[in-house]
Structure formats: C-alpha cells, structure tokens
Amino acid sequence: MLETKKLIVLDKYIQEVTDNEIIPAVNLSILTKRGNWMCSHGKKQILPLSSPNSLDTLYDISSLTMPYMTATLILKLLENDEINLDDKVNKYLSKFKESTTIIECLTHTSGIEDLSDSLKMTKENILKNIMNIKVNKKLKGKYNESWINYFLLGLIIENLKEGIDVYANEIMFEPMKMKRTFYDPEIMLKSNCACSHIVEGSAVCGDAIDKYALLFDGKAGHAGVFITLQDLSYYVTTMINKGVFRDKVFFKEEQYNLLLNEYKDTGHTLSWIKGKKCNPIKELVSDDALFYLGNTGCSVLIEPVKGYGIVFLSNPFHLNRDKEKFTEVLRETLKLAIDSINLN
User: DSSP 3-state assignment of 119?
Assistant: First the structure.
C-alpha cells in the first residue's frame, strides 16, 4: 500500500530538484503488489533548446542494458538449451583466445579489464583487441565490472540469432508488451529521447552515449537500449511477482533464482548488485535487494522478498558531470520512495 501524504512529499521534492535544474528530468515509478505510482518532472532537454519531459520520454539506460536486457536474453538461451553457463565463450566466438566462460562474463568474474581509451575507434580494431585480450589472472574469480564481458555475451547472441535487437523483440518486447523500447531508435523517435549530453554545442538525443555501443550501431550487449518508464516497469513488476508477467510465467524458477541468489560470495547475483553491496543506497535496502545504477543515471531497485520495485530514469549529465549532487538526489529520492511504501 502506498501512503498518499508521503507520495506528495516525494513528488514535491522531485519537482523542486528539476525546477532548480539540479538535474534536468526525472521519471519515477514505485511498483508494489497492491498498487503503483508514477511521476514525470523536468525537461528532457534544456540546452540548446528547452523540451518538456513526459512519461513517454525514452531514456538511454546505457550500462543498465546489461542486467536488464542482455542477462535476460542469455537466460532465455539457457532455458531453451541453446547454451550452458559453463560453456566457453570461444565455443561461439572462435577468434576469442581466452578460456573465459559465459557465467564468468555474466558475473564479471572473468578477470577481463576494459580496453585502453587510446585505441583507434574502428569496429575492426576494437573487435581485434577484444578477441586477443588477456585476462588478468589476479582478478579472475573476483567481481570486476567490465563492459567487455557483456559485449562478448552480445556477440554470442548475435551469433546464435539474427541480431540482438531481433531476439530481444521476440523474447522480451513482444511478450511484455514493450512498445516503447528500442535499440538505436529511428530518426522519428529521437526527438522523444531525453538528451544525454552535449557535443560541440549540439544536444545528443537518441544516440547511445556509450562510445563502443555507438560504434556498433547502438546494438551491443553492454549498452544501447532506450526505454520508457512504463516499459521498464513491466520488467520490474515481473521480478517482484516471482517471474510472472500478467499471469504468464516469463522466468522459470531456475532462471529466476539465478537472478536472485548471490554468486560465490561476490556480493552480486548473476547480473544484479545484491543487498548491502548496493552503493550508494546500501543503508536503505534489505539483504535481498537487487540494484543497478547505470552510467547515464538510470537505476532499478528490486526488493523481491518485500515485494516492491522502484525505477528511476534521469539524464543528470546533460548539463554537467557533478556526480556528487546527482548521487545525493538519487539517494534522497529512493529514501522518500521507500518511505512511502507501507508493507503492513
């Protein structure tokens, strides 16, 4: 049950934050088994022209693509016996030199580190460097997030299916009625996207902020998804309902539990940050919580045992890169949102 008076306080706080342009826009949903609440405040673009935010605004969720989308697609391949989690990546990508496994990529325990920023940015060169990358043996078995892990998973999906976007549409977008979720939105949709950043005085709207995803046409395993609040809320609702979406099983029990249970004392599940590892909100959540904060400022919090979820979509770095101020806003927003939920 949601408490109306506390929702009014939350709504006022978000409006003040966006009116004062501390961050440009916020779309927020609180999802429970007994009712939902959504709000939309601010402007999806402030510079060079002003454009109002709405519940229909598409947000670049960037690295949140990893736990939300790519992990789901991999689990569906597992469910259909098309892969095994212990399979080596080079079973599907023959040019990949290391003996890294799919589950090591999913859990960021592969020992793979990010590429040097000085590399020549061409598809051919980036692919060549990834295929020949050397694992850091000191990091193998430990959690060390690298976008390359999920980029490789995206390539596996591409190798087995017509394309990651085609498979996502078949497996997620259509079954979950996600009509406003896209990789690389069409030109006609870009004006409905929140501006993620400014380049040489021009607003970037509808193009992936992640340079590697952008290089690969906005379709990659680690980034590239644009989504509305409602569509992402469908996924979170499924997670708080034990893998069931509108009375239909979406995640079978085995796959659902992989998303919930901690993997080898890493503080993370198969794809989500778990419980008290949920920085910067660890003091607000239970040991069962699942959380991920993407590098564009979009986040998802799921409390599967308590039965609620919160989706926070924003574009804080459109104006500046003040991560400290953004973190303060995110923490306070989630604190007020959690406080509005009466679980009794």
Answer: coil
Question: Is 236 within 8 Å of 303 (Cβ atoms)?
Answer: no
On whether residue 132 sits in a domain, the answer given is: yes
User: Among 270, 80, 82, 212, which Cα is nearest to 159's?
Assistant: 82
The CATH number of whichever domain residue 88 belongs to comes to 1.20.58
Question: Torsions phi, psi of 227, nearest 5?
Answer: -155, 155
Q: What is the largest CA-CA distance in the chain?
A: 58
The token duo for 238 is 């499924």
Domain span at residue 111?
Answer: 69-164
Backbone angles phi, psi at 230, to 5 degrees: -60, -45
Residue identified by tokens 């406080």 is: 339
Is 247 contained in some domain?
A: no
Give the model confidence (pLDDT) of 27-51 as tens digits: 999 999 999 999 999 999 988 888 9
Half-sphere exposure of 108 (CA within 13 A, CB side): 20
* Tokens encoding 331: 């923490």
Q: Is residue 116 part of a domain?
A: yes
Number of domains in the chain: 1
3 state SS of 39: strand
pTM score over 0.90: yes
